[in-house]
């Protein structure tokens, strides 16, 4: 077991992320093999440029504010405080905070089947 003191984790702003920061609480730096967990904060004008993760699932849990996510077709999905959003591998997504500060947890699952495994159609696209 490992206790992580999030308040002691440095704040970073990844490439293609603007007016926001993340604090990586769980990842390979502490020996996690199948997931990454970050606490994120978007300023009212904060945003993450459109991108995709070919082999990762991501779940966002909004703790405060509203997270606005757009898919590849430009459709907007608003995720409110107390709600979660699951993004499947390969899905294009861009994220912003709208007009208010937004705090969230991002869980990235890295334990996808090997390339030669069949992916269950009902679970993943």
What report would you give on this structure?
The protein is an all-beta fold and 125 residues long. The protein has a single domain (22-109), classed as Jelly Rolls, CATH 2.60.120. Helices cover 0% and strands 49% of the residues. It contains no helices and 8 strands. It has strands at 17-26, 35-51, 57-64, 66-70, 76-80, 84-87, 93-96, 102-109. Strands 1, 2, 3, 4, 5, 6, 7 and 8 form an 8-stranded antiparallel beta sheet that branches. β1 (17-26) and β2 (35-51) form a beta hairpin. It is globular and about 40 Å long. The protein starts with 16 loop residues before the first strand and ends in a 16-residue tail after the last strand. The model has no long low-confidence stretch (mean pLDDT 88).
What spatial form do the alpha-carbon principal axes imply?
globular
**Number of beta-strand segments:** 8
The third-level CATH topology is: Jelly Rolls
The succession of helices and strands, N to C, reads EEEEEEEE
Q: Total helix count?
A: 0
From the alpha carbons, calculate the radius of gyration and give it in angstroms.
15 Å
CATH class: Mainly Beta
Question: What is the residue-averaged pLDDT?
Answer: 88
CATH architecture title: Sandwich
Helix and strand content put the structural class at mainly beta
